[in-house]
Amino acid sequence: GGIPTHNPGTPAGLEGAGAGHGGRGANCLYDSSILGEDVWGGDAYAWSELSEPWSFGSRGGATSIDMDFGGEGGGRIWFNLTDSIELSGSLEADGGNAGAKGGGGAGGSIFIKAPKMTGKGRVSASGGDGFGGGGGGRVSISIFSRHDDQEFLVHGGRSFGCPQNSGAAGTFYDAVPRRLIIDNYNLSTDTNTLLLEFPNHPLWTNVYIQNQAKAVLPLLWSRAQ
Question: Rounded to the nearest 5°, which phi and psi values hold at 174?
Fold first, then answer.
């Protein structure tokens, strides 16, 4: 089927806020009595699918009751291969752009499992641009041997209503080194990526929060860099 019109990360109201998925969407309508990091658009969801993501991104918020200007959520891509994959182009499950009258859509989900990957292609489940930028989606790879230098993007979308506050980064999980990366591609943001309950059997050995991404960590977590 097609992408649902509304998912759990679709923001309520008519504020033109960005949608959430792997990261929260941005909201440009600040309350001066509240810190910027305590205001967001659509919330994050599907944390339990982090290592094998399969959720659509959510649609961005509207600014009018008569017409929905929000960008569509990103789609889903799933590869479970017994042979190698050569990535010379792009795999994209990005959220849709919305212009200045709606929030950006949240990035979708991409999962790739293969013995080997070559090529210098790009994998992206990033948030769409809008009045408030959409949050990034979720990407996970389980590849024993990775050659060349592929690019993996899960950054939030740009916010036209508050350029300093892009959507929050989504999650990129690399299963072989057990590494979780939260990377906002040097787009500034006041909006957090939620890293929720600590798993009983840790999925990772290192967590990297980088390139202007922000994250909320459970108190039980002892190592993040």
Answer: -110, 105
